[in-house]
Amino acid sequence: NKLSVTKSDLLKKLNKIYPHLLKKDLLRFFDIFIEEIKTALKNNERVEIRGMMVFFTKIQKSRNSRNPKTGETVFVQEKKTVNFKMGKDLYKLINEK
């Protein structure tokens, strides 16, 4: 079993579905799609692909943490994290028996 799907795998599948489109155009579309998601998240916007998934950012507050190797206490500054919530259609799809 393959454990991951790569960008090139996705582009090959898109090329099979849309053989009339040039590979460079599919690549450009894919890159624009990903860049728009990244830009929206950077601007604290929610990204929803209806029925499939939602991406959103949260602020992880600054805190004292511990270096697992040394046990030393380390201060970690506040940062944004990206969270993912599965849509109902995707949930149903992966939980079909």
The number of E-state strands comes to: 5
Give the N-terminus to C-terminus distance in angstroms.
Answer: 19 Å
- Spatial order of the strands in the main sheet? 1-2-5
Shape: elongated
Describe this structure in words.
The chain has 97 residues and is α+β, with helices and mostly antiparallel strands. The chain has 3 helices and 5 strands; from the N terminus they run ααβββββα. It has a 3-stranded antiparallel beta sheet. Strands 3-4 form a two-stranded antiparallel ribbon. Strand 3 (63-66) and strand 4 form a beta hairpin. It is elongated. The model has no long low-confidence stretch (mean pLDDT 93).
Break the fold down into its secondary structure elements and pairings:
Layout: H1 7-17, H2 23-42, E1 47-49, E2 53-60, E3 63-66, E4 73-76, E5 79-86, H3 88-94
Antiparallel strand pairs: 1-2, 2-5, 3-4
From the structure above, extract its key features.
97 residues, alpha+beta, 3 helices
What's the short version?
The protein is α+β, with helices and mostly antiparallel strands and 97 residues long. It has helices spanning 7-17, 23-42, 88-94, and strands spanning 47-49, 53-60, 63-66, 73-76, 79-86.
